[in-house]
Structures are given as C-alpha cells and as structure tokens.
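Teaching soon. Got one?

===
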Amino acid sequence: MRIASYAGRLTMLVDGGGIDIGAATGGSFPSDVLEALERWDELKDVVAGLREPLVHPVDPAMLEAPVRLPRQVFAIGLNYRDHATEAGIKDLPQAPPVFTKFPVCVTGPEATVALPSPDVDYEVELVAVIGRRAEHVAEGDAWDYVAGLTVGQDLSERKVQLAGPVPQFSLGKSFSGFGPTGPAIVSIDEFADPGALELGCSVGGELLQAGNTKDMIFGVPELIARLSRVCPLLPGDLVFTGTPAGVGMGRTPQRFMRPGDTLTSFVESIGAIHTTFTAGPGYGNSASEE
C-alpha cells in the first residue's frame, strides 16, 4: 500500500493514478492522513475491502508531505559508518545521537525552499512513519509499529547548526522547508527487505550521495526500540534515520546548495522527491558567501 496526501486528501496511489479513500468509503474514513494513521489497522482493512474503486489521475505537483504536521520529528546523526568517517569520528557511536527537526519545517516532495544562506547542506534519508503508539517496544516487534517508509531530506544550515559553544542542531535543521518528505508512505509489506534499500541524491547529472540502509549502525527496529524507551512514539511521527557519506560539508571543496539547484532524492522502492532552491531574504549577507 502506498498512501499519500494529494491536494490535502488521503489517497492511495495505484497504477494509473490514485484512489481518494474518503470518497471511496462514502466519507466514513477521514481524508486527513494523520487522522487516518490514528486508525492504521482499520485503514489497512478498509483498503483491502475496496471494490472497483474510482481511480483518478494524479499530478505529482499536487502531492504534499505525506504527514503535513507530525507531532514529533526525531532525527538520527552519524548513523552510517562512512558518514561518521567523513565527519572525523574515529569511534563509532555506542548509542544513536538524537535531535529533533521542528515539525513546521516539514514540506512536500515537490517543494521550493528559500535558502537562508550559502551554507545549506543536503542529507538524503530514509524516514520511518509511525503507525501505532509505540512505548517500550521490543526491537523484535518494532516493524509492527511502522506504518511505512518514505523519502526525506534533512536540510541543514551548517553555520547555525555548528555555532558554539553548544551546537544548535535542531535550529540549524528547522528553517522553513528544511524537511522535504514524500512522495508517499509505503507499507512494509511492499519491500523485499525493508532493511536494505538503496538511497541517494543528485543535482543535475552530479551524484552527491549513494548508499544502502543495510549500512546503518542502528537499524530502524533498534531506533524505534531505543526511542520508545524514553517517550511514546505517536501515529504520524517521523523518524529521520540518518544519511550516508557525501554531504557537502565533508567534500573538498565543500558543496552546498545554490539558488537554481534542484535536488533529487530517492530511496529504492519508494520513489523520488525534488527540492528546488531559491535565494531567501538575507541570502547574500553570509560571511561564507563565495
């Protein structure tokens, strides 16, 4: 099952277009994705029971963030060995470094983002979407609490993020539009192996990142188990699971996003999202401008 928010309505994407779940059920099921995720088990049954549904054309430009305003957004740092190496980390973390992206930064799969400075970096990520309230979940049961997986970009303004003496990860990663996600939430049964998915991103013909989620230090089940020991994970919550090597800050010379760039980010068996950048207010005032 592939569910999306299309023109603000819960839509199941199928060959040839989409099915408006609210319309197909005569209004008995909510049209808001977050409300639907609160009834995840029921949604699966509803979709399975649809007969001769009306399929309508889908314009990719009208796809929105699958969860437009999640209650919690967790993000994991240094979760790929090669990225930890490029960041200068000699000893791999024994526990996942966790921060948050503020929910208002979440945007959709075909977004235009205003750059606040020339110091904005890219980080393609697999994003897990929670489908059931998860609290003190065992690692072996964790996939049962995941509604599905989607593509994400953890955009990062590096100057704000790394300003000392205490780094401001959440602020640097929460400018408007800094959480592109989509194009759909793909349920776990759609994957041959949800723990081994190719992912990457590019600008034009330049491949910037390429990796596989099997190389995560902490896989999705372990992340959910660890996070749920601290606080409940709620339906619709997002878990950005980390990025592979190739980020702009780790390159020589460094490579950040520029006005006019369109960043394509993909995850195997899910699809791709496209983020186009413009110059935001004050963009040319950064001391790092080249």
